[in-house]
Each structure stands twice: as C-alpha cells, then as structure tokens.
C-alpha cells in the first residue's frame, strides 16, 4: 500500500494523477528539487512573462537553457566540420607528397624531393633524413643533406615497436634537423627500418609552431615513411643495376 504522506506515491485524483496542490506541496518540502533535476524543466511549457518581487521568470530560464543547448550544438558541429576539413587537407598533402616521391627516378631526385619539395607539400618548415653510421657500402648516405646518426640512436627514440613519435616541444641540437634545428619547435619523427642497402634511420618533419603533439593520429606519417622505404629500395636497386651495366 502506498504511503499516504508521500504525494508522489499517493494518487490525488480519480485518474491516478497528482493534482496541483500535491505537486506544490512536494516542491515546497523539496526546494532544491529542480536544482538536482534541471532536466525536468526541459519538457515543461513556458509560463507567460512574470514580473514582481520574489517571482521566478521560468520562461526566461527555459529560453536561456535552450539558447545554451543550441550554442553547444553549434560549437560541436563547427568543431566536427573544422576537424574534417583539417583531416582532409592533411590527407591530400600526404597523397601529393607520395606522388612526388614516386616520380623520383634517381637517388639525387629522391633526396631533393624529400628535403626540398616535401616541406612545401606537407606545409612544414623542415624535413630531414638521418641514418646511423654508414659503412663503405653506403656512400650515398654520406650526402650533405643526410644527417649522420650514431649507432643505436634510432632505438633510443623509438622504444620497442614504436613507429612514430610526436613532440610538442623538441630540443634538437642539430643532430636531426641540422641548421633548421633553431626554428623547429614541434616535430614528428618516423622510424626508417634498415634495408638491404641502408641502415636504420629517421624521417623528421619539423614545424616552427605546435603542428605536432602527442595524441594526434600517426597513420599518415607512418604510411609516408613506408612509401619512402619502398622508393629507397627501388632507386638504389636501379642505380646499382645501371652502374653494373656501365661497368
């Protein structure tokens, strides 16, 4: 049996619904009810404009609440649109960088595309290539545009199976970005796996602003580096075959 002292459990009308007096009595005993359950106002009809001391303007409250909800929805929609545009822009830039690399037919072409064309195509301030100490079998890796890294340096950056590492603030002494180290603030570093004709290395993308930071997606950067490895193998193999034919 319902408790007759509980107006929410005891019907006050023949239809089993609460009457106005019962609701008002409950609200008087629980003045913080609407503060604890603000969503209860969402489905209520707004009263007319009231005025006078001690009178709460419920219409204004509901209108303000709806305006706030609309503003939040608008901000969320704008954020989704802006993120989608940014992602599409990054994807298109990555595709353009890949296409430019696929057109490189010689080692010099490849090196020029990566270090000179990619900064413009990827909208970054510096792109660098670095390889661990190259032996006599890799004379190409002694080019001036390639940074020489100490043995084991790559593993100190990429622990375990990490492929890409993002830095919001990077402190480079010139080892990775050379003369551009002074302007590079944030960076994305991708692991270059050792191949038949090259040792482990690093592809670095650097920006003077906070273009990179932990938490960003790294799939496109990793993809770009995998394409670079494939083109390295293709170009080096082609030049080796050409050198053998000339010999």
Helix/strand layout:
Layout: H1 20-29, H2 33-36, H3 58-102, H4 107-122, E1 126-132, E2 146-149, H5 153-157, E3 164-167, E4 186-192, E5 201-207, H6 219-246
Helix pairs in contact: 3-4, 3-6
Notable characteristics:
247 residues, 12% strand, five-stranded mixed beta sheet, elongated, alpha+beta
Structure in words:
With 247 residues, the chain is an alpha+beta fold. The protein starts with 19 loop residues before the first helix and ends with a helix. It has a 5-stranded mixed β-sheet. Residues 1-14 have low confidence and may be disordered. The chain is built from 6 helices and 5 strands; from the N terminus they run H-H-H-H-E-E-H-E-E-E-H. Strand 4 and strand 5 (201-207) form a beta hairpin. The longest helix has 45 residues, at 58-102. The chain has helices spanning 20-29, 33-36, 58-102, 107-122, 153-157, 219-246; strands at residues 126-132, 146-149, 164-167, 186-192, 201-207. Helix 3 runs antiparallel to helix 4 and helix 3 (58-102) packs parallel to helix 6.
């Amino acid at each position: 049996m319902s408790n007759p002292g509980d107006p929410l459990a005891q019907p006050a009308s023949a239809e089993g619904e609460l009457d106005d007096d019962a609701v008002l009595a409950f609200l008087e005993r629980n003045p913080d009810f609407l503060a604890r359950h603000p969503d209860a106002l969402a489905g209520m009809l707004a009263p007319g404009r009231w005025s006078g001391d001690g009178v709460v303007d419920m219409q204004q409250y509901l209108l303000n609440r709806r305006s706030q909800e609309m503003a939040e929805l608008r901000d969320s929609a704008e954020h989704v649109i802006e993120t989608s545009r940014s992602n599409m822009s990054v994807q298109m830039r990555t595709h353009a960088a890949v296409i430019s690399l696929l057109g490189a037919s010689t080692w010099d072409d490849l090196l020029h595309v990566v270090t000179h064309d990619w900064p413009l195509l990827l909208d970054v301030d510096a792109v660098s290539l670095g390889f661990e100490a190259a032996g006599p079998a890799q004379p190409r890796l002694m080019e001036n545009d390639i940074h020489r890294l100490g043995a084991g340096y790559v593993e100190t950056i990429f622990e375990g199976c990490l492929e890409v590492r993002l830095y919001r603030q990077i402190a480079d002494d010139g080892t990775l970005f050379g003369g551009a180290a002074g302007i590079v603030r944030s960076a994305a570093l991708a692991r270059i796996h050792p191949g038949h004709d090259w040792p482990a290395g690093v592809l670095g993308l650097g920006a003077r602003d906070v273009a990179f930071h932990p938490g960003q997606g790294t799939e496109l950067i990793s993809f770009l580096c995998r394409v670079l490895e494939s083109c390295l193998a293709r170009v080096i193999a082609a030049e080796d075959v050409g050198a053998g034919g000339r010999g």
